[in-house]
Design a protein that fits this description.
Layout lengths: L1 E5 L5 H4 L6 E3 L7 E4 L15 E4 L9 H6 L3 E4 L5 H16 L2 H10 L5 H7 L12 E5 L3 H12 L3 E5 L5 H6 L5 E2 L3 H5 L4 E4 L13 H5 L5 E5 L8 H10 L2 E6 L12 E3 L8 H21 L19 E8 L4 H11 L4 E9 L2 E8 L5 H8 L4 E8 L2
The structure holds nicotinamide-adenine-dinucleotide and 3-phosphoglyceric acid.
Length: about 375
């Protein structure tokens, strides 16, 4: 029996995907965590924990280096909620140029008002259209590429900026979308700017006072990525100066409170029934595959590995990516008179992963010998079902 602990609201669609070999939230020493944006940066992890899946895109809530040192495989499910974010961002772009939130607020308090009088009271009642306006999309991954294509289809002039664009992502982007070579080139002529990058050291304060200076007066900015990618204080200053017209974000803080030119949603970009279902279902599949076969793909800290299990026993080893690990592992097997049926090895950054298949059940002596190899972090035995 395997044990899974969940954090946050995990969709039942995903929990239903676990086979009857799995117990959910029943014991305190689980094999797997299935989480959303629960902050794990300072968490202690149970000794038995082998895998964490973040059902969703942003993984800045996971201490990836520490998980690697503990031999815990980490995953996210990028793309699972991208359509949900695209839809809310498109809605917010249109809401922003039509001033729908202040206008609706006004109407809620002045229901009797005559429409022509209302237009005189507040010129914002006349909005603009998005067609032929320029949208800058910063980050063209799963979310950004969908936003860029959808805005292009609605008649916007779209400029994208992503210096690390993967070839897969490049294929997804419509050909009439302009690729900018620098952030400045992307934002300087934009009427609206939306950020879709991961939160890391490089993207913290990506949109700061300096970046805002390079923008057109009257620009609108959206942040459905993470708190801190756009510097909220710099935006407030620019709103006060009239440089920025409006700011729409999923990540509010105190400096943004009680302003008509700011719209804050409470981190709901990926919160749809469909998106939460997608992430949880993928998470459940990743956990079962990793625990039952050792196979994995698109992990955040380990290499891809996909080897069919033809032998009755498999040993998986998480270790440092240094020379002669494979040789040492094979030597320990030979020293213990174990014949290797199949052996696979791969590396990702400083981490490496080796799977060794045997006909015979591994002995305690073999396992202890493997664990004794310097730089081996975790040794696990999997029995074929
Ligand atoms: N509001 C929400 O609920 C919600 C939902 C999903 C994702 N997100 C956030 O959005 C982010 C993006 O999600 P995604 O699924 O598109 O991720 P993704 O990994 O598919 O795409 C991120 C893209 O950003 C690019 N990038 C990285 N650094 C960059 C930089 N300095 N400048 C420009 N581009 C850069 C990458 O090359 C990549 O193409 C996530 O990391 C997460 O923080 C928020
Ligand atoms: O990065 C993400 O996937 C989103 O921010 C969604 O986060 P959530 O799972 O906490 O809603």
């Amino acid at each position: 029996m395997y044990n899974v602990k969940t954090f946050n609201a995990i969709s039942q669609d995903g929990l239903d995907k676990f086979s009857d070999k799995y117990q959910i939230n029943q014991i305190d020493n689980p094999d797997a965590y299935l989480i959303r944006s629960a902050n794990m940066l300072d968490a202690d992890f149970p000794e038995n924990l082998k895998v964490i899946v973040r059902a969703g895109a942003g993984f800045n809530n996971l201490p990836i280096d520490r998980l690697s040192e503990l031999g815990i495989a980490a995953f996210n499910t990028p793309g699972s909620n991208a359509n949900a974010v695209k839809e809310v961002v498109l809605s917010m772009i249109i809401a922003s140029v039509r001033h729908l939130f202040p206008v609706a607020n006004f109407s809620a308090n002045n229901l009797h008002a005559d429409i022509s009088k209302m237009k005189k009271i507040d010129p914002r009642f006349k909005g603009t259209e998005i067609r032929d306006k320029t949208l800058a999309v910063i980050g063209l991954g799963h979310v950004g590429s969908l936003v860029a294509n959808a805005a292009n289809d609605l008649g916007m002039d779209v400029v994208g900026y992503d210096p690390y664009l993967s070839s897969d992502a490049a294929w997804r982007i419509e050909s009439d979308i302009t690729r900018a070579n620098t952030l400045e080139d992307a934002i300087k002529d934009a009427d609206i700017i939306t950020v879709h990058v991961p939160k890391n050291d490089e993207t913290t304060d990506l949109i700061d006072e300096e970046a805002i200076k390079q923008m057109k007066t009257g620009v609108s900015i959206l942040n459905y990525a993470r708190l801190g990618i756009v510097n909220n204080q710099a935006v407030v200053d620019a709103l006060d100066e009239g440089k920025v017209a409006s700011y729409i974000t999923d990540f509010g803080d105190d400096v943004l409170m009680n302003r008509e030119d700011v719209v804050i949603t409470p981190h709901i970009g990926g919160s749809t029934v469909e998106a939460e279902g997608n992430g949880a279902v993928r998470g459940a599949k990743i956990i079962q595959r990793y625990l039952e076969t050792g196979n994995l793909s698109q992990s955040l800290n380990l290499p891809n590995m996909n080897v069919s299990m033809h032998s009755p026993y498999r040993i998986t080893l998480i270790h440092k990516n240094i020379p002669n690990m494979v040789g040492q592992i094979a030597t320990k097997a030979a020293d213990n008179n174990f014949n290797i049926n199949q052996m696979s090895n791969g590396a990702k950054g400083e981490m490496a992963y080796t799977m060794v298949d045997f006909c015979d059940e591994p002995t305690e002596q073999l396992l202890n010998d493997l664990k004794s190899i310097n730089e081996v972090i975790r040794v696990r035995v999997i029995k074929r079902k």
